[in-house]
Specification:
Elements lengths: L14 H4 L20 H6 L1 E5 L10 E5 L14 H6 L6 E6 L2 E5 L5 H19 L29 E11 L2 E7 L3 E6 L18 E3 L2 H10 L3 E4 L3 E7 L8 E7 L4 E6 L3 H15 L4 E2 L3
Parallel strand pairs: 10-13
Antiparallel strand pairs: 1-2, 2-4, 3-4, 5-6, 5-8, 6-7, 7-9, 10-11, 11-12
Length: about 290
């Protein structure tokens, strides 16, 4: 176990502090061979490494979770990054894969960060067993009806990344969409992991309120386009020679932003889908 050096770090908790405080974590699926997990086992399932050349700038810690951790959280609700980002000493978290996170926590030692991850997993485990999220069996006389899952509505501020390296008027930009609008910023402004190029990708996500989107666009010479100000999006598929998607985002005042990027159909469909959901089919010219 990594030793803590108080003169270099300001960790508020370490793994040894959690051995008796954390309590037992209950698996989220039923199984005869599954039992509650204690802090010692959980700590062994968490790998923390300091990256000399981090994949995401400023995120020098890489956290890897063992497959066993997946039994303690809801597989259909990715909230570990959010919960880890709320731990003391953690500045930013980017989820690179389902079990891999890039973390910016310059004032934490490896053991302090591991303890922060343990607390985040414990919080996710509590949430997984919360009746608001979990399936509730119906014990009334209407037993013929199957239990229903109760899912929280998606936050309108949750953005998904269409492209992190699109071209626009000679600049490299990132393109985010959420239920409020389209955010176009210089590439790298909002840290994110590599795009999943699979047929059923896990999209890179970030939470950006409308107020923050306005500030970011102003600070970085970007563009924030609320759907109320959007006229249409003209989307074009890749050609046989130039294998790039292209789109022109046209605002109601006539201002337009050209975009082109390499990517998969699901990411183009992401842009198209948000526009259609908020402005209707008439605002989308072309099909992904």
């Amino acid at each position: 176990m990594v030793q803590h050096r108080p003169h270099k770090h300001d960790c508020t908790v370490h793994t040894t502090d959690l051995l008796h405080r954390l309590g037992l974590l209950r698996p989220c699926i039923a199984g005869e061979d599954l039992r509650p997990v204690g802090a010692v086992e959980l700590a062994d399932w968490i790998d923390v490494e300091l990256e000399t050349e981090p994949e995401i700038a400023g995120h020098s810690w890489q956290v890897g979770l063992g497959d066993e951790v997946g039994l303690l959280v809801r597989p259909d609700h990715d909230d570990l990054a959010e919960l880890l980002g709320g731990q003391a000493g953690v500045r930013s978290v980017v989820q690179l894969d389902r079990e891999v996170f890039a973390v910016a926590a310059p004032r934490l030692c490896a053991d302090g960060l591991r303890a922060a991850v343990m607390q985040a997993v414990a919080a996710a485990n509590v949430r997984a067993h919360d009746p608001y999220f979990a399936d509730q069996p119906d014990t009334s006389a209407t037993a013929s009806h199957p239990p229903q899952s109760v899912e929280p509505e998606e936050d309108d501020d949750l953005c998904r990344l269409v492209s992190g390296d699109a071209a626009s008027d000679g600049r490299r930009v990132q393109v985010w969409v959420n239920m409020n609008g389209i955010l176009i910023l210089p590439a790298g402004t909002i840290p994110h992991g590599p795009l999943d190029q699979g047929e059923n990708p896990r999209f890179q996500r970030a939470t950006v309120t409308s107020a923050r989107a306005v500030r970011l666009a102003k600070q970085h010479a970007g563009r924030w386009i609320p759907y109320a100000y959007l006229d249409n999006v003209r989307l074009r598929r890749p050609g046989l020679v130039r294998r790039r998607w292209s789109a022109t985002v046209v605002e109601r005042d006539g201002f337009s932003v050209p975009l082109s990027w390499r990517g998969t159909r699901p990411h183009a469909l992401l842009l198209w889908g948000y526009v259609v959901a908020r402005r209707g089919l008439g605002a989308a010219d072309g099909l992904p």
